[in-house]
Amino acid sequence: MRAVHFCSSCGKVQPPVPVDYFTFFGFPRKLNLDTAGLEKEFYALSRRLHPDLFAQANPEERAFSLEQSSMLNDAYRTLKDPIKRTEYLLRLEGVELEEQSKQATEKARATGKLKKQVVPPDLLEEVFELNMHLEELRTQRKTGEDDPAILEEIGKAKLSLEEKYAALFNELKIEWNKWDKSVDDATTNGAEADRQKILDKILDVLNRRNYVRNLVRDVNEALE
Amino acid sequence: MSSDHIVGIDLGTTNSLVAYMQGDSPVVIPGEDGLNLVPSVVALDENNQIIVGNAARRHLIETPERAVYSIKRLMGRGLEDIQKELKLFPFQLADDLHEGEVLRIKIGERTYTPPEISALVLRQLKRNAERFFGAPVTQAVITVPAYFNDAQRQATKDAGRIAGLNVLRLVNEPTAASLAYGLDKKKHGIVVVYDLGGGTFDISILKLHDGIFEVIATNGDTHLGGDDIDNLLIAIALDDIRGELGLDFRRDLRRSGEAVQRIRQAVIEAKIALSSQPAAKLDVDLPGGKKYQREISLADFEQMIQPIIDRTVAPCKQALKDAGVKPEQIDEVVLVGGSTRIPKVRRLVQDLFRRVPHTDLNPDEVVALGAAVQANILGGGSEITKEMLLLDVTPLSLGIEVAGGVTDKIILRNSTVPASATQYYTTQVDGQTNVAIHVLQGERELARDCRSLARFDLKGVPPMPAGMPRIEVRFLIDANGILRVSAREQRSGQEAEIDVQPSYGLTDEQVENMLLESFDFAEEDFRQRQIIEARREADTILTALAKAKNNQAWHELTTEERRNVETLEKALAAVKDGDDFHAIRAGIDALNEATMRLAELMMDTAVSTALKGKAMDDTDLEEGPQAGHPVAKADFE
Q1: Could A52 and B391 be called an inter-chain contact, meaning their C-beta atoms sit closer than 8 Å?
Q2: Which of B3, B416, B490 to mutate to test the interface with A (most CBs of A within 10 A)?
Q3: pLDDT tens digits, B442-475
Q4: Distance between CA A119 and CA B530 in Å, rounded?
Q5: SS3 state of residue B405
Q6: Domains along chain A?
Q7: Which of A23, B245, B332, B476 lies in disulfide reach of A19, CB 3.0 to 4.6 Å?
Q8: What number is the ipTM of this complex?
């Protein structure tokens, strides 16, 4: 089902209906997405909705075109990127992810306390060692010496983390397939609880992936 | 309305142009002087008449305190952030300027805001176009640097409005250039536009396909351009002069205005010469009779400007990174802006992007031509433009200031526009009816390192217990790259009234007033002009009459006729230096009539010299051919 952008009889641009991004493009709410098809649809809709095409139209049509094309661009931007798409789907399904961490960050900043970071269990040991090495590096840097052994250790740790980062994306894709299948199955038998489990798993993978990414970023900063 | 020509305008730091689509190609509309480029220079002559363009440049040198140039550098900026500019440019600020107020520049005895000064340039271009078409021009597309922030864009739009133009769209300069480039050749692929103008630098990376011009990433520096090269050379010259001649012009730029402007002109000529010659000479006549001379070799010049040109490298690299594009993937590099004529700049571009840049297009005109193409598209398009679509981006991330002085980015840079983001707010205190939002632009973490855009005060929130209201605030960046905000309290469904305090701009009310004022000034200027013309004509007739009294014909008049003429002569002399146009006019007409017979008599006795009533000095009435009627009506516009 796709949102109606233009009236089927007179062809004039319509006010945007508050639909989700998938519906806007006429895509099912699935995580695997034909990005080439999405791009083609984006250009086709742009050619018809862009404000430039309504410069001489009446104010109402100009307003609709502005609204529609901003939604078009927002939707395209979100669905095009695999992670943004995933996060968007979670939000659509009622999973609060961003607001939680954003609130926590704001609170931390306001109170000055440290944000509670939950370390993914499988990384506990690695993170512990890495932090140790980073601390050593910082101390050494103060005296001006850079121990090549420490640098090598940190380098290796970084590589390992980058590998994990890539592996987590693959894990995510496996969950994607599960989700997509559940969408297909939902039409045949209702399996609500299963779907919730899949969503929880996806959130977990995303969080772990974010954690690793932040870690790699910290390492890069420390190495500069 | 569709029969109205929509024009494309390049409002440049150094030069401005107006163009339109003539059939299949865009064409620049020349000024009355036949030139395509209108220097972005505004001056007031000694009668407070506004002069724009080439004529103003002469005033810039002779009476620099009555002229202004490169005003684009001040558009959308505040007092604190132009301190650096003030050191390099002879901008004179109004005496009573406060922090937080819109800038006002002194030109002669008057003060103007930057949008008003830009409006004067736009008005000149508007007139050129109207003269060309023989019809009114009320709609335009105006270009801005891609890296211009919201305040700078708004200032440009305000300038358009003050000039009496409906600005249909602001187009980014590199994007406009790409339109001119890609127009006829059905271009396809990844195109980089490197735009180094008089005051701004932009780098844009576009994907061209099937007539779609899609900007992938853009970056730049809104205070980097040819002017910086000029200022560096001027500084070196001033140092030389202080060392060699003991004159320190640097200590008071205002007083040594004339000297600096002469040096500036020499420096610009040398800079241009060095684009095709191995050396150039500075030869300046300084006030006071001294001379300053210096040779600059190409090698010296290139060494001097290296640090300035190097500032373009980081934005280029960042843009490539944001676009996810490697130099090998680029299909074409297009050069825009006069400063790209400098061979060193071309070499830098070639090194950065690993290909020879495209230089077929006139770097001074390509932006205006592209704006004309966009104007055509907005007007409904034509055969050649009907498949074309522009997808541009916002250059800077949009953020909200949150607790702790941190910026929360809600729309990221290089997002295709129009783009929007929705945020939810609530109240801290029971019964609170206002919520304040501080919006910023920039990439930094801390709000104080970003550019303050505006403070929005959301009013009319229904009083509820603290934390209850759910205020949905929608931020929308339109196709011009300008922000709009709307808000609604969701529980009550009530639209919040939004009071906008632009950080560096004019309120709508101020623009309206300026619009009216500019009409008033136009009125006053016109009136002034009328008075001056009338005075000139009065002088002409009085001088001619004085000489005519030596003519034999004078004595052929009756005593009464002579007395009548002399009475009117005295009357005219009395009013002509006043401000009463009608009195002067009446005086001239009366005297003309009274001297009709005198003129006839003089014509009867001699061959007449045709006098147009303007150049009395050219004709000697004492001897030689006799004058005809001493005065002919002057040509009024």
Answers
A1: no
A2: B416
A3: 998 888 888 888 888 888 888 888 888 888 889 9
A4: 82
A5: coil
A6: 1-80 (1.10.287.110), 115-223 (no CATH)
A7: A23
A8: 0.83
